[in-house]
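Lecture notes, continued. The same structure-token format from the folding unit now serves as the input rather than the output. Read the line below as a description of shape only.
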């Protein structure tokens, strides 16, 4: 199904690899069968990046309604008010206003039905913090913007690829803090959101969830920790009682080989690395970060700003292009009556 409304790519940190990946994605649009997209950024900055890299990328300023028609012959850019003077590889707090404006505008356009989905280029939180940014991260900022409609949203991070989808129940906290943060209620809430959105957005009639144990061997019946029995086990029972197909807690070391992956549609891991190590091993260049639990589709490449290689033209666009394709797929489904 084609998209009647464009996909939006946010600028990301202009000193990182986001601008060059965006340019390369447009250059490879035909070979990679990418759907039309528009960028929320500074046209003159993107022109400078293209010129520095020696890439011929015509850039045309547009509004959201013009993006689809322009995409075949030029990269459509929805101009920001904030100008960008950043140099590749040199993060600068002066870029913060454009980074924030790009995200805010993307959410406003997608909530206003002028765009179908948002693909966010990577940001550097420490750069935003230096400029007074007060949100823990990108996803929390998106949830706060969505919550301006008076509702509270609980965003859930899912790392998705054709081979594996994983969800960390706790995310960016120290490993030592995980046992205290991990509650039955949090696991149940996360499982509900994942099951619902696998049905509504991914079209799975009866999604199957597999919950990893926290401890080695899922606690070995309490011999290696009690959390698997006292926290995760009750969550599995509660989700099952709600009609969700769920199994666990399972030993994490045997959950991610090819045969095991055939038994579930998404794995819920109890902490960050338990989720991200397997998917980055299996699909390092193709994995996509999908935010569940928001009232709009948001995807992102599964990598950071990579300031160390920015401006060299060597960053691989695979994950960004996968994020664009998945956003188009989910956005088209969301637009279906």
């Amino acid at each position: 199904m084609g998209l009647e409304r464009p996909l939006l790519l946010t600028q990301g940190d202009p000193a990182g690899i986001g601008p060059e990946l965006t340019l390369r994605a447009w250059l490879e649009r035909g070979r990679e069968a990418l759907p039309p997209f528009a960028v929320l950024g500074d046209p003159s900055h993107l022109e400078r990046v293209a010129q520095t890299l020696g890439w011929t990328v015509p850039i045309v300023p547009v509004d959201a309604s013009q993006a689809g028609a322009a995409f075949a012959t030029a990269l459509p850019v929805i101009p920001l008010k904030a100008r960008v003077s950043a140099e590749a590889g040199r993060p600068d707090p002066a870029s913060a206003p454009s980074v924030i404006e790009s995200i805010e505008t993307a959410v406003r356009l997608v909530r206003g039905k002028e765009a179908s989905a948002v693909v966010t280029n990577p940001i550097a939180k420490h750069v935003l913090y230096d400029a007074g940014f007060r949100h823990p991260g990108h996803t929390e900022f998106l949830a706060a913007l969505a919550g301006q409609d008076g509702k509270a949203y609980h965003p859930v991070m899912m790392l998705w690829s054709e081979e594996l989808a994983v969800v960390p129940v706790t995310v960016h906290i120290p490993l030592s803090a995980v046992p205290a943060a991990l509650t039955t209620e949090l696991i149940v809430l996360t499982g509900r959101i994942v099951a619902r959105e696998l049905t509504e957005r991914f079209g799975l009639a009866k999604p199957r969830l597999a919950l990893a144990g926290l401890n080695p061997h899922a606690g070995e019946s309490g011999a290696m920790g009690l959390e698997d029995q006292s926290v995760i086990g009750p969550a599995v029972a509660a989700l099952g009682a709600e009609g969700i197909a769920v199994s666990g807690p399972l030993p994490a070391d045997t959950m991610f080989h090819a045969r095991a992956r055939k038994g579930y549609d998404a794995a819920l891991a109890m902490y960050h690395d338990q989720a991200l190590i397997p998917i980055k091993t299996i699909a390092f260049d193709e994995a996509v970060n999908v935010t569940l639990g928001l009232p709009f589709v948001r995807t992102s490449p599964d990598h950071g700003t990579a300031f160390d290689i920015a401006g060299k033209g060597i960053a691989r666009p695979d994950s960004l292009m996968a994020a664009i394709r998945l956003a188009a797929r989910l956005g088209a489904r969301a637009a279906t009556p």
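Point for the exam: The longest strand covers residues 245-250.
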